[in-house]
Amino acid sequence: MVTTNSIELECKSLEEKNTRVEGLVDAEIPSIFRIPQSTLSDKNPSVSASRFAIPIIDFADLAASREFVVGKVKDASEKWGFFQVINHGVPLSVLEDIQDGVVRFHKEDLEVKKSYFSRDFGKTFIYHNNFELYSSKNGNWRDSFALYMTPPNLPNPEDLPVACRDAMIEYAKHTMSFGSLLFELLSEALGLNSEMLKSLDCLKGLLMAGHYYPPCPQPDLTFGVSKHSDNSFITILLQDQIGGLQVLHQDSWVDIPPIPGALIIYIGDHLQLMTNDKFKSVEHRVLANRDRPRVSFGCFYSSQMNPNSTVYGPIKELLSEENPPKYREMTIPEYTKGYVEKRLDGTSHLLNYRI
Fold first, then answer.
1. What is the pTM (predicted TM-score) of this model?
2. N or C: which end of the chain has fewer CB within 10 A?
3. Fe2OG dioxygenase domain: from which residue to which, for each copy (predicted)?
């Protein structure tokens, strides 16, 4: 039987040895990464993307009809809480550079990476395994680094590792521009002024995270990332061509095949609360695989790591007698604290804010 004390001892042992998931690829996976049998029964059932019309939105259509694209964004946000964007304006070379930067950092000498290892999320750049490793019963089979910024301010380059410094700074510039456009389209999809979500500070904070999923010797016993929704307004995700991403749709886990050059957009918990359930915060997960490493890079729009006293609740313009508020108000730091403490346990933290 695995106890809380044994989990904590195993976590500390891994960190004292400066061991990350990547260093465990040839071994039997430790108990802290093994998912319970009750979850294993839900691991395998999934459906092919061909069963559903997965929302793919071509932003090249903006030039001909912004209204047409807004309609596509509205439909995907309401029915899926997720969509993929092609022809989004971020150069392919920039996408390739950030993926290469993630690999370069995670392949660095351990002594270099160790200098960035921290669980202090107040730092500009940190390297860690799982933010929930100590609080959760099960860790995820990935290593990560994270950078927090307050747009439009970019971090001091000297605070970033050389391996991914230039790639991250360049990608951040493009992501902030693309994120601004997304919030305009989402505002319009809600029937609001295009500046509404931006005026509510949805662009105020950006957490960037580079995930590296090493090959797993026992992929059926763990997850790359467990089932969860995101602690964000929206998330912009770039995934490589390995696959493994699944989203929950109509009670089925749907495989999301990679599209070269596409960016994936998730509706996050904050936006579901603000839209009073009009937009859905999508639950998703990543399967572990035995053969090849997987790389992804996520940009989470949320001021979760920054003091922010702004109070968020259902947007008043969306409410009526027929559609009263379904959630109580919250601040982002308050929500983040509960989200982290709850860990990735397969349930939504939004449930704690239901009226």
1. 0.90
2. N
3. 198-303
Average pLDDT estimate for 60-75: 97
Which residues, including other chains, have CB under 8 Å from residue 18's CB and lie 6 or more apart? 110, 114, 117
Percentage of residues in the chain with pLDDT exceeding 90?
A: 63
User: Tell me, what DSSP letter sits at residue 316?
Assistant: G
Say which range, 43-57, 267-281, 326-340, has the weakest mean pLDDT: 43-57
- Calpha distance 178→85 (Å, rounded): 11
Contact at 8 Å (CB) between 151 and 176?
yes
Query: In angstroms, rounded to a whole number, what is the distance separating the alpha carbons of residues 355 and 338?
Result: 17
Q: Which two tokens stand for residue 89?
A: 């304006």
Give the integer Cα–Cα distance in Å for 76 and 280.
9
Neighbours of 310 (CB within 10 A): 12
Tell the residue number behind the tokens 């979500």, with chain if given: 197
CATH 2.60.120.330 fits 4-353, yes or no: yes
- One-letter amino acid for residue 290 of the chain: R
- Only one residue has tokens 């992804």, namely 296
Nearest-CA neighbor of 210 among 171, 248, 247, 243? 171
The identity of residue 45, as a single letter, is P
Position 309 scores a pLDDT of 83
Asked whether 266 and 237 are in contact (CB, 8 A), the reply is: yes
pLDDT for the residue 22: 66
Q: Report which of 261, 164, 167, 152 is spatially closest to residue 206, judged by C-alpha positions.
A: 152
Which residues are paired to 311 by β-bridges?
331
Mean pLDDT of 244-267: 94
CB neighbours of residue 91 within 10 Å: 11
| Edge-to-edge strand ranges of the sheet holding 245-249 | 223-228, 284-287, 245-249, 252-255
Phi/psi at 126 (nearest 5 deg)?
-135, 155
Cis peptide before 324 (omega within 30 of 0): no
**Count of positions (residues) in the chain:** 355
Distance between CA 236 and CA 298 in Å, rounded? 6
Measured distance CA(212)–CA(113) in Å, rounded: 13
Q: What is the pLDDT of residue 296?
A: 97
